[in-house]
Structures are given as C-alpha cells and as structure tokens.
C-alpha cells in the first residue's frame, strides 16, 4: 500500500487491441480517490495532533506539557501512547483487514470490495468528525484503517485488470503519486483549519469524506473486471465486459488468456504455502525486506509527525504547519521525477543515489539537533531552523523518487503469476505492520534517543543501500515472463535457488520416473 502503488503487469506482455474507453478513464479516477484517501489519512493526523484545540479536548496532559516551558524535555512533549495510538491504530486495523480483503477480492469481486472500503471510510469519517472522546476518535481511525486494508488490495488489482497493458506500469506509480497528493492536500487543509477555533480539527478530519464519498459512488457505478467475473465462473458476462472496456469485439485472444490464467491460478491449492517453497525465496525475501527498509528510512516519522517534530524544535504552530506543506509539496514533485526516470536510469541507480542523499541529510539533521536543541532550550534560531527544513526536504525528495514508489513497484514486477496475489498480500501486510511500528514508537523514540533518532535511521539507510548493492537485481525493461532467465539465473546469489529447484526437478525425474509436470505440481 499501499500502502502504495500495487498494479500488476501483464502476465505475458502481449499487447491486445484496446482503446482508452470512458470506463478506463473512470477507473483512473477511482485510482485517484483510493490513493488520495490513503494519503489524506497519512497526512492529516500529524497536523491535527499539533493543534491546541484538539490536544486540549483529547489529550489534556500533552496540551499542558506542550504549553508549560521548562518542565519537560523538548524532545518528550509529545511522548504519549494514546496520541501515538491515534495515528497507529489505522495501520493495525488495515493490516488485519488485508486478510479479509484478499478473500473478498477473490470471492465477491473487486468492485464489491471497493464498495466495502467506501462504507468503512464513510463510517470512519463520521466517527472522527463527530468525535466527543478518545474512544470515538480511535474507533473512527480503526474504521478508516479497515477501509485502507480493503481499498489497497482491491483498487490496484481493479486498475491493473481494467487498464490496457501499455498503461499498466504508469498506473502503478500513479497510485503512489495520488498518495503523495493526498498527503499534501491534508497538510494544506490542516494549515487552513488550524486558524478556525475551536473546531478546525473537526473539519480536517471530516474533509476526508470527499474522497471517501467519491470512491463509494465510483464503486457503485463501475463494472467488475473481466478477470474477476471469469474467476468466479461468469464467463459470458466476463466476455461482454471485456468488449465494453476495450471498445472492440475483437477480444477473443485476451479472453482466452484470462481464462487460462484463472485456470492456472485455480491449480494452486495453497497459495501461501506455495509462496514459501524454496524456488520462490528470492522474490519473497526481496518483497518483505523492501517493505521493512522502506519504513526504516524514517519517512513516516516525517509524514506522520513533521508538524509535531517542527514544534518540538521550537517552531510556532503556524510555521510547523506550513513547513509540513513544503515537505508535502517536495514529496509530490519528486514522485514525478521517479515516474520519468524509473525506466530510463533504472531501479538500482535511483535507490543507491537516494541512499547517499538520505544518509547525508539525516546526519546533518542529527548533528544540528545535537548541538542546537537542548532539553530545555528555547528552540532553534531561524537560520538553523531553515537548514533543518531544507535537509528534511532533501531527505523526502530522495525517498520519493526511490523507496516510496519502488518499494511497491519491485515486488509487483518480480512475483510470477502463480504467486502474485499471495505475494501482494504479504507485501501489503508487511508494509502496514512496519508502518504501525513506526507510528506507535516514533514519539517515544524521539523522547529517549533525542537527536540520535536520525542517526539511527541513517544507520538503516547504510544497511539498505548495501542490500541494494549486493542483493537487488536490476529489473528495468525485463518482461515478467523473462525474469527467471534474465534476472534470477544471472544473479551471483539468487541463482542457487533457481538452480536448486531445477536440479531437484531433474533428480526426481531420474529417480522416480515422474514427469517434470508431476514434480512441478507436487
Ligand atoms: C509509503 C507510506 C508513506 C508514503 C509517503 C509510501 O510509499 O508506503 O508509508 O507514507 O509513501 O509518500
């Protein structure tokens, strides 16, 4: 999830006749609302938790601590489990919902799953906007999280199945772009509503209703994907829908391919057990490790808590909120850079360059904070404050053209068809799990580790860059069906897993007289 963009590329890379029909355009708008909704939820909580009216109502202890100078260390003003739960509960709920979502996307279809997501979102927005106590606030966040779990599974699948092959890759990063736009949108709204007293925060939370409503309406009106209809045995309906969305009657070849793919997928009785087989190890390890690394860049310390963080450094409320707007805008623009360069300079180059940039900026932040922000000091002087915001921007831009989109893109393009949907669920779950960990722990870590927290993240950046250098193969311009030959078999480390699998197959044939096919399906 996304978090993130999760479109799946064409299984065979074949190009079928397809027009960009109105249905395809509507589905792009759906992607926009699904991604916007997720991004808005990511971005809105930090700004709201830095607003005095909100703190006074729900977290009076934090409010007192924030406004009494001298008693508590600057770094610990916001260290409160309840406050972190307000942010993190969404991701925990999302993680749990993903398990159900993977069932409903298969059994009920993509469209109904999106509708379920829409209802959860609307419920969550109502609870949040009307919240009278912490309980209502958390219930609202949990409902939103369920929406995220269902939407992040169904929307990308829906998109990748409805879009013609030639625009699938672009749609993948488009989803990420919409997340960043959602975050920026939330930052801007927070900046505006913080001036409305005492209920500005309600407006911030309630405005998530707009993308939620659009997603729900969209899900009511679009058709389900041909793949989903065929998977559920409605062959003729699937064919009719395929004709409509492609704008041509000439769909027999694509129809046949979907039928075959869905038959093949049905052969895999235990998708998750299958994923654990040794031959699938390279993709599985890479998908899991990339999600953990993506979160340990420390990006969500910034996305969730930058207004709180800037406040900690002594910025006034207003300055904190507009600094968050600046970093949000940098995030959007840098994601565009990624769309442009990912198939030109390649994945590895982007990740390695970003590693250097992220390391450098985090070390500078850590050093400035170490020297200039003391436990009970007044906060940063203007020049230093500008330097910190600049470094945060340099960090965010590097993330946005590397680990942000690529954390999602690489797993989605390396899993072969037979493990793709299970692999996708594992990817989304791991991401949400570690997003939860950061959301729940960051403010306490800031309190205990102080400026060292950024040195901690920079250490992780070194580890992940070494991983990229030695273990992440380049997948630029490699069609999915050629991954084994051109990528895994050529890689110094991962090739042993592919070779072992082939060796096993061969031995079994020789020893037991079994056919290779029998061994394969065993
Ligand atoms: C990550 C999110 C993050 C966002 C920031 C996504 O790729 O999965 O956790 O908040 O990027 O733009």
Automatic annotation (TrEMBL):
GO terms for molecular function: monosaccharide transmembrane transporter activity; symporter activity. It holds the Pfam family Sugar_tr. It is found in: Membrane. It is a multi-pass membrane protein. Keywords: Membrane, Sugar transport, Symport, Transmembrane, Transmembrane helix, Transport. The keyword Membrane applies. The keyword Transmembrane applies. PANTHER family: IP12678P (PTHR23500:SF357), SOLUTE CARRIER FAMILY 2, FACILITATED GLUCOSE TRANSPORTER (PTHR23500). This is Major facilitator superfamily (MFS) profile domain-containing protein. It comes from Dendrobium nobile.
């Amino acid at each position: 999830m996304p978090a993130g963009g999760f479109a799946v590329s064409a299984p065979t890379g074949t190009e079928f006749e397809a027009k960009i029909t109105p249905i395809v355009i509507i589905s792009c708008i759906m992607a926009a609302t699904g991604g916007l909704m997720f991004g808005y939820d990511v971005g809105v909580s930090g700004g709201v938790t830095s607003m005095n009216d909100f703190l006074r109502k729900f977290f009076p202890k934090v409010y007192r601590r924030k406004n009494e100078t001298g008693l508590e260390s600057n770094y610990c003003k916001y260290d409160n489990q309840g406050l972190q739960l307000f942010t993190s509960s969404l991701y925990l709920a999302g993680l749990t919902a993903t398990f159900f979502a993977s069932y409903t996307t298969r059994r009920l279809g993509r469209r109904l799953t999106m509708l379920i997501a829409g209802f959860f979102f609307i419920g969550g927005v109502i609870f949040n906007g009307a919240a009278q106590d912490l309980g209502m606030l958390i219930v609202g966040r949990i409902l939103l999280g369920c929406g995220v779990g269902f939407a992040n599974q169904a929307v990308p699948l829906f998109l990748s199945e409805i879009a013609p092959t030639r625009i699938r890759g672009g749609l993948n990063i488009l989803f990420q772009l919409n997340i960043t736009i959602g975050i920026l949108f939330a930052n801007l709204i927070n900046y505006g509503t913080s001036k409305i007293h005492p209920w500005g925060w309600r407006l911030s939370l309630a405005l998530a209703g707009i993308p939620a409503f659009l997603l729900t309406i969209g899900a009511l009106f679009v058709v389900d994907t041909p793949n989903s209809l065929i998977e559920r045995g409605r062959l003729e309906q699937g064919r009719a829908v395929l004709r409509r969305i492609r704008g041509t009657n000439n769909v027999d070849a694509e129809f046949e391919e979907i039928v075959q793919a869905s038959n093949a997928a049905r052969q895999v009785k235990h998708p998750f057990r299958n994923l654990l087989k040794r031959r699938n190890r390279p993709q599985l390890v890479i998908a899991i490790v990339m999600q953990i690394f993506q979160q340990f860049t420390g990006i969500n310390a910034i996305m969730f808590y930058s207004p709180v963080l800037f406040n900690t450094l002594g910025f006034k409320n207003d300055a904190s909120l507009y600094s968050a707007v600046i970093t949000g805008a940098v995030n959007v623009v840098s994601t565009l850079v990624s769309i442009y360069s990912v198939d030109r300079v390649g994945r590895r180059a982007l990740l390695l360059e970003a590693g250097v940039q992220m390391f450098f900026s985090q070390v500078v932040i850590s050093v400035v904070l170490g020297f200039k922000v003391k436990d009970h000091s007044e906060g940063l002087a203007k020049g230093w404050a500008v330097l910190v915001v600049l470094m945060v921007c340099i960090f965010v831009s590097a993330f946005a053209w590397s680990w942000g989109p690529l954390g999602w893109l690489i797993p989605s393009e390396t899993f072969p068809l037979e493990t793709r949907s299970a692999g996708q669920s594992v990817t989304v779950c791991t991401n949400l799990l570690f997003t939860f960990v950061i959301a729940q722990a960051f403010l306490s870590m800031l309190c205990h580790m102080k400026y060292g927290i950024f040195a901690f993240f920079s250490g992780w950046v070194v580890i992940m860059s070494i991983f990229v250098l030695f273990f992440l193969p380049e997948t630029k311009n490699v069609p999915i069906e050629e991954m084994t030959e051109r990528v895994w078999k050529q890689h110094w480390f991962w090739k042993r897993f592919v070779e072992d699998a082939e060796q096993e197959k061969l031995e079994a044939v020789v020893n037991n007289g079994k056919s290779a096919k029998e061994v394969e399906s065993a």
